[in-house]
Structures are given as C-alpha cells and as structure tokens.
Amino acid sequence: MLRYLKFSCLLLSLFIGRGAFGQDEGQKSDEAKEGVSAASSRESENRAALEYVDLELAPDAKMKLVKVPAGKFIMGTDPKQRTRVRDGRENPRREVTISRDFHIGTCEVTRGQFAAFAKDSGYLSQAEREGWAYAWNGYVWDKMGGASWKKVGFNQADDHPVTCVSFDDAIAFCRWMSAKTGRKIMLPTEAQWEYAARAGTTTDFPWGDAWEDGEGWANAADNSARERFPGWRAFPFEDGYLTTAPVATYRANAFGLHDVIGNVWEWTADWYDKDYYKKAPDIDPTGPATGSQRVLRGGSWLSSPPRSRVAGRLPSNLRGLYCDYIPGFRVVIDDSGRELPPLSIPNRPDWPDWRGPRRDGTSHHVPEKLPEKAEFLWTSKTTGPGHSGVAVADGRVLFADKSEDEKNDIWRCLDAETGKELWALAYPAEGHMPYTNSPRAAPVVYDNRAYLLGPFGHLHCVNFEDGKVLWKKHLIDDFGGQLPTWGMTAAPLLVDDKLIVNPGAAEASLVALDRKTGEIVWKTPGGGAAYASPITNNFRGQRQVVTYDAESLGGWDVNTGQRAWTIVPEKQGDYNVPTPIAIDDRLIVSTENNSTRMYVFRGAGHREPVRAVEKPAMTFADMAPDMITPVAYDGMLFCPHNAELFCLDSKTLELLWKQRDMAFYSYASLIAGNGHVMITTIDGELLLVKANREKYELVGRLQVFDDNKTEVWSHPALVKGRLYIRDEKSIGCLILK
Ligand SMILES: [Ca+2]
Ligand SMILES: [Ca+2]
Which one of 107, 310, 471, 497 is separated from 409 by 20 to 30 angstroms, measured CA to CA? Predict the structure, then answer.
C-alpha cells in the first residue's frame, strides 16, 4: 500500500512541483530530494501522455504497467565509450526494431507482490526448497543457509523490490500473474528491456554519458557504500540507501519506468551469448535458442557505475549464484506470441520424478517423528512386482505394474485420496530379465504429461489426466542400442523442453527428445546404456547433463548433446547404478568398485569448455554402494552400505560417523529434509534419523508391511505427511502424521 501512496505522491508532485518524497524516508538526503523534485517537474508534460494499466494480483496487491510504443532504437554500446565491456558482448551496436507495442512494469516486482503470489499459490522459491541462497552477509553477497527472498540479509519492506529470486522463480511468478490477470505476462526480452530502459536516449545512462550526473535517478553503490566498504567503485553522491530502496523512489525515465538502473538486477527472458549481437535479427530479437545462463540487466544497489550502464549485460547462472548478482525482475505484457521460457529445473510440487521434484532425494515434507504403527489411508493390490519409483502429482499417484502373466507392462494412475484407479496403460513387454521383468525407471510427470519408460525400452508420453498416449518411442528399436542385462532403468530427465534418454546406441548413446512431440533434438554417439539416472546441473556457468555410460562417467552439454568430458575410473566393472549428486560446482558419485568420490570442475562456461578434473578431489573408500544413491543434505552425505549407515562431510568426504544396523544390509531409499533423513529399507521398514553431524540419533522406526517376506525396491513418494509406498504386492498411502 505504501508504494501506491508513494506513487500517487509522485504523480501529485508532478502537478504541484514539490518534492516527491515524504518524511517517512528518513534515510533520504535533502540533496537527493531536491534533485528528484526538480527533475519531476521538468518531466510533467511528457508524463501526461503515458498510458498505464493497473492489474490486480490480489485484494491487497496491484501492479502498474505502462505502454511502450513500438519503435526503433540503437541497442548496444559505442565501442569508444570509456565504460564499455571489452569482450564485445555489447557490440556491434546496431539499430533494432521493436515491432509491437507492449506494456512493462513501471517498477521492479516488489516483495509485497511476490508475497501475494507465494501466499496465493503456495509457491516455494528455489532457495526455500533447497534451503539456501546467496544473500547479504553485511559485507558481501554470500552463500547462506536459510536465506531466501523472505530473508535476504537486510531489512526490506513490502515496497522494496523482491530479490534472492532465481530465474525459475521469476517465470513462476509470470505464470501465476498470467492466470490471475488473463494477460500474457512475460519477462522482457533483452531488446524490450533496453528499449524501454533507454526511452529514446542513446547514452550510457538514461541521464546521459556522465555517471556523475545520475543523482536522483538510481539506487546504486553511492557515497554511503564507499564509506562503509572502502575501495568500492561508487557514484559520487548520496542516493539515500545502502541496500534496496522502495521502488519508484527515484525519477522515472521518459517511458515512465523507475529503477531501470540500480536497486536490483532484472532477469530478462533471453539466454546469454557473448556473440549474440553479431547474429541477432534486427527486428524483435528474442535471444539465442538455448544457453546455460540468462541475462541480467541494469545493475543493483551495490553496482559500480560501469556495471550500471543501460547497455550492460550480465550473464547469470539460473539461481543468480555469484556474489555481485542481486537478481529481481520486472514483467511485461507481451502479446507477440512468444512463449514463456520453460522452467530450467521444473518446480513441480509433490513427488513427480525420480528422487522427488529435484532428483536429489530432498523434501521439506520429511516428518520429525514416525507414527507408532503403520496406518494406511488406502492400499491397493497390484498384479505384479514393481521396482520403479512412485510418482505423485496433481492429486494422482502413478506407478508401474506388470500383468500377472508377466507379459505386459502396466502403468497405473490412482486417485491419491482414495486409491481408486483412474486409468492404466498396458502394452506387451515380454522377456526374461533378472530381478523380474517389471519396469525400473521412475515415471516422470510435468505439465500434465507423464513419461513412462519400460524395462525393454518402450517410452510413452501420455496425458497425465486420462493416460491417452501423446507420442511413443522405443529406445532399442528406434535407436539401435542393446538391451542391458537388467533392462532400461534410467529415469528420463527433463531439462527445458527436452526429455533426455539413454538408449546406449553407438550413434545415439544419449538422446534429447522434444518433450511435447518426441522428435529428436540432438543425439550423441557413445557407449552402451548405464543404469544410473542422469541429472543436470550448472557447473561453473555451463549446464551439463551428468550420467554414466556402460564404461565411464561423463558430462554432456544440455543444449547440443556434445560430450564435454569423460572419466573412466581407476577400477573397471562398476555397474554404475547410483545417481550422481551435484552440490554447487562439485560432483559426488558412489559405486561398488571405485567407492565414493568427489570431482571438481575446470573452465568457465561463458568462455571455455567446462570439464571435470579426472583425479577425484576427495575420496572415501568404505562407502561403496552398488545400488543405493546417497543423499546430500545440509553439508552431510548419508548412505547405507554393508549394514552400516554412513554420514560423511559432503565437502571433504571425511567420515563424521557410522552406525551398524542389520536394517541397512541391502537396498534402501533415502529422503532428507527438515533436519532429518528418512530411510526406507528393502524389508519395508522406515528409519528416521536426525541429520546430525555429531552422532547417529535414531528418532523412530516403523515396520510398514505385515508381510515380513516382502521387498521394497520402489522409491516411495513423500507428499505432505503421506508416504506412497509400494512393495511387491501392493501400493498404499501411509499416514505419517
Ligand atoms: Ca545506494
Ligand atoms: Ca533495477
């Protein structure tokens, strides 16, 4: 509300020619007030022609957008400018046409607006889901546990710009706002952003070429920052705020936009490519088709003058990982027909994938205690055994079954509340295989589609509501690979709009399919299929798929499929079953012959190829699981192996403790979160352990199934106090609280 008062106050000031800011902004210097006041009155006539639209996001949250007329502008930087970036990323400077009118937020999205979104949708930001973010530690932007847009390291009122938000968070906000308003809400393209930010100017800054003249225009690093942090490059004036300022504190440009320079960096929709301007279209450029980093624009409250130029482009990992990157965003209404980028890591609620929504075995639904005895909301008999994990999304449970005669794969979808079957997909899948011939790969659900991979290579994309087949492929017949001894087991991996599968054929070892059509996007020659499920992560600025083939561990460029690196470990013969684990720029893998290793990476994604260093940076010999994937949580790494539960430091791989218990003698699935690790054993027992670096602390244990001969190979799905768990004969919804 404060923001709107302030906004009306600003508008009012245009007419009566007074200072725009009330006394409530105690930090604001008199000089800055005067500057803004004078500037405001000069602009009053221009501003009258602007067309605004007010959109209601929630009863207490509105957003003002302003119409930006179609037109031409000069994009990029004059190569003679003193402040240019020398790597050529802003060149060539060229005329670009924006062919359609669009609307853009007059301000950065505020904390209050983002809070309305989070409250209405239940959305958890990437930082909240993962338990950390880069936030302000008082001196630098630093990696901090528990930080998120709610807790950024300094005080923010609701009219401050939201920050600590990842690219995916911004996209999720756009999706929600589109649904709320019925308008096509997007992030601006780089071209739209620069066009709107320039508002007819051709200079380095919206106020001219001299950064010294920017007083009253922007909240960047100013005198107060220089005093507090000696050595900082800063603007030679007081802007009144050391950290973020309320939006619209400073004067708007001729198009009516505030804070294009400073306050928070703003996500754009475009992928980053240093050389993009050399090949970009002159009309409505939308950025490269793909990439590893997105572009941030405009600088932030701690940016130096060169960083705060209107043509400046900053590549950022999708989380905004680096310390100087203070990401926020503003939105546009864009009816040009371009599509909102897909989430780079689909933020899917519930349990829609192998090892949960992020393929990392973590969940904020892990309980803090276990019930005394197993109580099911419902159970349902199956016709066959099932090794493949359970998926839960949109109130539906999806899991694999086999017909009684073992001749058909069956995928069943049940109502999550009642266990009633909603649909099933069956197809012939005959043949012998050790460990039964039932499906192994976990189903993957996203965007109302489910991806189902059978043990013999049948891949179906079905409508998740009714099971209708949308497209299908056969990983062996279509690509010419050889069926591994234990069948196809790797859960397909969703990245952007690609579904990455592992046929293991000589010319198609790894293949990316268009997730909507099943068409091939890229395929890469290489070795036979492995058993591990692939993951994706951004290592030093390059997004890679990391997985195994039959012989080696490797990384592949997400966008091209090109193999970036290969590591053949010291000892041969690993079956390569456990899923690799990425923690920031590090990779941890565990196998039976080569034990637990940590790899680090060299190179920088926007300059040179990124490769894992062949020699492991750390190793730990005693933890050598053949099938179990360890879980990394809160600086620790947990894994049962040989009847012992290990807890290692996930940075050093040093043993913190281990605990012997026969429950850990064979296969197990681990889910970590809420300060705990929940382990489902092969015998269908749940063990809840504190995630404690000091010692093993068992909180509870619970035998889930009456049948003490049953086996649980299937990874259960944990959603809000319920565990959807499958043994060899049934599936059930276990009530955990
Ligand atoms: Ca400042
Ligand atoms: Ca900004």
Answer: 497
